[in-house]
Design a protein that fits this description.
Blueprint: H1 8-27, H2 34-53, H3 59-77, E1 79-81, E2 84-86, H4 88-105, H5 109-144
Antiparallel strand pairs: 1-2
């Protein structure tokens, strides 16, 4: 039992990093919130750790299946309604949280932390900037007509 304690750190990292993104998503009332992001990150971490430890296995095969499965979850988050599409950021968030979990599972902690920080920057800091650009573009369009 003691020999397996080294597997706890990747799981804790996945829990914390997936949770950080999940908190941001929950604060903004997005469908994939705290629990969903933690579970995706933990699941990707565990599958990655298992694939690295299977005797005679090709770790890339399981990694590819993680990406495929996450793509399926992400597709379920995308909704088309009245000519507009919603849920693309949620789908992309699901995808990146799985990647963070995979980085934790391979013990690439610096990559996982830096990716989490960049993801939080995108989710927290870019929306106001994006709205400003959109408003400026609409102003230009309305003056041109």
């Amino acid at each position: 039992m003691e020999a397996n304690w080294h597997n706890v750190l990747p799981l804790l990292a996945a829990f914390v990093l997936g949770g950080a993104i999940g908190i941001e998503r929950r604060r903004h009332d997005k469908p994939a919130g705290l629990r969903t992001n933690i579970l995706i990150c933990l699941g990707a971490c565990v599958f990655t750790m298992i694939s690295a430890n299977l005797a005679g296995s090709e770790p890339g095969r399981i990694a590819a299946q993680i990406v495929t499965g996450i793509g399926f979850l992400g597709a379920g988050a995308i909704i088309q309604s009245g000519g507009s599409v919603h849920g693309l950021t949620t789908a992309a968030g699901i995808w990146i949280v799985a990647a963070i979990g995979m980085a934790c599972g391979t013990r690439m902690y610096l990559l996982a932390v830096f990716t989490t920080v960049l993801t939080l920057i995108v989710l927290l800091l870019l929306p106001p900037f994006e709205k400003k650009i959109s408003k400026e573009y609409q102003d230009i369009e309305s003056k041109g007509q």
